[in-house]
Amino acid sequence: MLSPGATDPSDRLSRPGLASAVTAYVLWGTLPLYFLLVAPTGPFELVAARVIFSLVFCALLLTVTRAWKPFITLLLTPRISFTMALAGALIFVNWQTYVYGVLTGHVVEASLGYFINPIVTVFLGVFFLREKLRPIQWISVGISIVAVLVLTFAGSGVPWIALVLAFSFGFYGYIKKRVGPRVDAVAGLTLETAWLMPVAIVQLVVVGLTTGLTIGTVSLMHTALLAGTGVITAVPLLFFAAASRRLPLVWMGFIQFFAPVIQFLVGVLILHEEMPPERWVGFSLVWLALVILTADMAITARRSVARRKKMASTAP
């Protein structure tokens, strides 16, 4: 019980938590530049390498931290193991779509997917968790739908890369919530990539028999960069896990926009992707929806904290 005037621990802003969150999302935001460095590797070989080297890196982490025993326990728990297999399938779709978008000059559209992801998550909560939205949240969802329609009919077609990214990551988050804190970041990624290993091997075989593999044939630096995809996949997840344990959910909600903002800037300022007027209108509508949704989250969280403090101060 809090004494009158005491500060709720959830209100305290952890500097290490803040630094971890910013680091995670900045790393995710700059991923397009890393993936472009591994040219001429194609999207299918790149994602296969990402799966394999992520599993290798996670195995090393489990060895260093002596966490194999709890991991094996999770692996032998059917409900958790098969749930993580489904999560792996969703993150595979997400990775493959994202890498394809980056390597084909659609970084801006990929950033759109992560801009609308919070709105998609709210939308999924209505259908799968029977959550009730406040009127202001419905307004945000409605504006985002209008934005997608603008980008579809006034632009160059359905922004399918953005939609696949948003929904695959939204469902991925929903699946991960089902296992909760029982599966930490490293164990989760290890399980997911272990399930994806057969798919990655098949992809490598197909690429090898068709266009030919690039790993080990371009340069030593190129091979090192491909191997490094395991590190750049796992490290942001570890920072994210550290941040999520230390920061209030509202702060995580604010900071998550670092990644798509950086991706958008990379696409426009560095890669010089086209931004015709209708695209600016569509993105502006998405940003407006996010401002409304984020403001509503912040106000609701503040009222909740104030209510808890009031109850604590009046308790006997």
Automatic annotation (TrEMBL):
GO terms for cellular component: plasma membrane. The chain crosses the membrane at residues 21-41, 47-68, 80-100, 112-129, 136-154, 195-215, 221-242, 249-271, 283-301. Residues 17-152 form the EamA domain. Keywords: Cell membrane, Membrane, Transmembrane, Transmembrane helix, Transport. Its main location: membrane. It comes from the Bacteria. It is a multi-pass membrane protein. It is found in: Cell membrane. NCBIfam families: rarD (TIGR00688). PANTHER family: ACYL-MALONYL CONDENSING ENZYME-RELATED, SOLUTE CARRIER FAMILY 35 MEMBER G2-RELATED. Belongs to the EamA transporter family. This is EamA family transporter RarD. The gene is rarD.
